[in-house]
Specification:
Number of domains: 3
Largest sheet: 7 strands, mixed
Number of helices: 11
Helix content: 55-70%
CATH topology of the largest domain: 2-enoyl-CoA Hydratase, Chain A, domain 1
Oligomer: single chain
Order of helices and strands: EEEHEHEHEEHHEHEHHHHH
Structural class: alpha/beta
């Protein structure tokens, strides 16, 4: 990360230590978009808090908005520190922190935005910045806008008084030299520390060796070999399971093929049985004179019965016994091939005969 000192820390520090955005003379300073991305990434890591140390003369407002939005939207608490000067848009960024800390030598400055020729846009932008600056201090947006118009500088005490910072850290309380009163105590303290570390490490390793079924005096190589054996065993078991899976899949495939073949066989047998049933019924009707006893007529009635057995049976039973089957007149261009059509025509003819 470019702006974070140590992303692995529970309280990572991000630095705004130069101008913000692109300057015509000094080039690119703090990239607001990249700073925003890095801060929001830290917000996903479950940190205790995020610190932002500011020592900047300000710069491009748009880049500053990116940083402000990231601070205000972060779920992780973000504390801002004025460790030098927080001027212009960097002062606005300072005001977005949960806790805002200044050193006793810190300075702040607010002023109206400048650049461009559109006075209306500059006026709107001043109102926008005044809203952020006044949100957490004891001033209204109008009062803050008046300070901006005057280009107002404030020291640490004045920033604390108006609420721009929440506390002041004293210079004389920082980085004091710590000394051991007796030099010969250092070696003794070091020995005690090393002993404690050794005991703690040994106790921790006992848990590992016991878990692996090794002796208490097992060394590092013994532990590594035991772990390797476990890995080899796990690998062999995995291969065996994979082979079993393949066998089960093949068996399932065979069963599926047998099932499909049996299903076809059953369906064929079912169709054959139905055909025989229909044939027997139609031939019986032909024998008693319900229908004409010739191959073409019997074949047509069999096909009709296969489509609707009960309906065909009822239809034939309604025909006069010992009489000639009604002749169905059709035009030369009409060919009845659909069983339902045949049934409808036959019913019509029977009704007409009545």
């Amino acid at each position: 990360m470019k702006y974070c000192i140590d992303e692995n820390s529970d309280e990572p520090i991000m630095l705004i230590n130069t101008h913000i955005g692109i300057d015509d003379v000094d080039g690119m300073g703090i990239d607001g978009a990249l700073f925003q991305e890095e801060l929001l990434y830290l917000d996903t890591l479950g940190k205790k808090r995020i610190q932002i140390w500011i020592n900047s003369i300000g710069g491009v407002v748009i880049d500053g908005y990116n940083i402000c939005s990231a601070i205000l939207k972060s779920k992780t608490p973000v504390d801002t520190y004025n460790v030098g000067v927080a001027v212009s848009i960097s002062g606005v960024i300072l005001m977005c922190g949960r806790n805002r800390v200044g050193m006793d030598y810190s300075l702040g400055m607010v002023h109206s935005p400048n650049g461009g020729n559109d006075a209306k846009v500059l006026e709107l932008m001043q109102g926008s910045l005044a809203t952020i600056l006044s949100a957490k201090c004891d001033m209204t947006a109008e009062q803050m806008s008046n300070l901006m118009t005057k280009t107002t500088w404030l020291n640490a005490e004045e920033m604390l008084e108006c609420g721009m910072i929440t506390e002041i850290e004293s210079t004389d309380s920082k980085n004091k030299k710590r000394m051991i009163t007796a030099a010969n105590k250092f070696d003794e303290a070091l020995k005690i520390t090393n002993k404690l570390i050794t005991i703690k490490t040994k106790k921790s390793m006992l848990k590992v060796t016991n878990k692996l079924g090794l002796n208490d005096d097992a060394n590092e190589d013994n532990i590594l070999n035991a772990i390797k054996e476990i890995e080899n065993k796990a690998g062999a078991e995995k291969e065996a399971l994979q082979e079993q899976i393949v066998e089960v899949e093949n068996a399932l495939k065979d069963l599926k093929e047998k099932y499909n073949a049996l299903e076809i066989e059953v369906e064929t047998e079912k169709e054959s049985t139905m055909t025989d049933k229909c044939k027997n019924m139609i031939e019986d009707f032909a024998k008693v004179g319900r229908i004409t006893n010739d191959e073409v007529t019997i074949g047509s009635w069999i096909n009709l019965a296969k489509s609707d057995f009960e309906g065909t049976k009822a239809l034939i039973e309604g025909l006069p016994l010992n009489s000639k089957s009604p002749v169905i007149e059709v035009t030369n261009t009409t060919v009845l091939t659909n069983p339902n059509d045949m049934m409808n025509v036959a019913i019509k003819e029977i009704n007409n005969k009545k």
